[in-house]
Amino acid sequence: MAGNGAPGATVVSRALAVLFAFDTAHSRLSLSELADRSGLPLSTTHRLVAELVLGKALVREPDGCYVVGRTVWDLGLLAPVERGIRELARPFLSDIHAATRATVHLAVRDGLRALYLERLSGNASVPIVSTVGTRLPLHATGVGKVLLAHAPEEVRARAMRNLRRVTPYTITQPARLFEQLEAVRRDGFATTIEEMSLGGCSVAVPIMRERFDAAPEVVAAVGVVVPNLRRDRARLVTALQVAARGIGRTMPLS
C-alpha cells in the first residue's frame, strides 16, 4: 500500500488515498491495483475513481488503466514556491536552450524524488524520460544529485537506503554516491553518465536564494541532458551557473 498509513473515514481522505497510490514507479494502475495500493475496498475504489475521472483528476486509458490527470499537475503549479521559481526561471531556461540546443530541466526536491517543474526539449536525439510533473530518483539524475547534495542530512541518509538501479550505470553503492555528493558541494555541479537512461548524460547546478541573517539556501536545480559530456562539460557548467545566478538574483529574500 502507498502512503504512510490506512486511509481515513472521510470521502476526502479516501479520494486522497487513491491519488497517493500513484508514484514514479506506479504511474499507470488498474482498478484492482488502485484498491490494493490505497487500502480501500474494490467497490469504494471503483466509485471514487469514477468521480475522479469525471473531475479530470484521473484519466482512464484505452486498456482500462488509470493515470493522473493534467488538472492535478496544474493545481500543483499553484503552490507558491513551485509557481514562483518556474515563472522566474523561464527566460533564463530559454537562454540556456538557445545557447546549448540541449534539453533543459528545472527541478525541485519532493521527498526522495526530483520534481520536474519545466522542460525545454533539445535538438539532439537523446533518450529523455522526464516530462513536466515527473518525479525521478534523486540519485540517478543530475538535478537530483544537486538537490540531494544540499538536502538535510536525514534526507541523504534515507536516500542511501533506497538506491534503486535504473540502468546498469546507476550509482547504487552508498560510499560512491557519498563521495559524489561531497564533490557536488565542493565543485558546484553534478553529472550523470547514462544513470537514468542509456545514451543520456546530464550536468546540473544549484539555484540559490539569499536569506536574511543566514547562508543562501538551495531551492532548485537547473540542468541539461546531452549525448555525452567529454568535450562540452565546462561550457555547459558555465552556461548553467550564469543562468542559476540570474534566477537566484530575481528571487525575493527569505
The gist of it:
The protein has 254 residues and is of the alpha+beta class. The chain has helices at 11-19, 31-38, 42-54, 70-76, 80-100, 142-149, 153-160, 174-187, 233-250, and strands spanning 58-60, 66-68, 103-110, 113-120, 135-137, 190-193, 201-211, 214-226.
Describe the structure.
The relative contact order is 0.11. This protein is of the alpha+beta class and 254 residues long. It has nine helices and eight strands. The model is unreliable at 1-6 (pLDDT under 50). Helix 5 (80-100) packs antiparallel against helix 9 and helix 6 packs across helix 8 (174-187). The protein folds into two domains: 11-73, Winged helix-like DNA-binding domain superfamily/Winged helix DNA-binding domain (Arc Repressor Mutant, subunit A), CATH 1.10.10.10; 77-250, Beta-Lactamase, CATH 3.30.450. It has helices at 11-19, 31-38, 42-54, 70-76, 80-100, 142-149, 153-160, 174-187, 233-250, and strands spanning 58-60, 66-68, 103-110, 113-120, 135-137, 190-193, 201-211, 214-226. It starts with 10 loop residues before the first helix and ends with a helix. The chain has a six-stranded antiparallel sheet with strand order 5-4-3-8-7-6. It is 42% helix and 21% strand. This is IclR family transcriptional regulator. Residues 71-254 form the IclR-ED domain. Keywords: DNA-binding, Transcription, Transcription regulation. Residues 9-70 form the HTH iclR-type domain. It comes from Flexivirga aerilata.
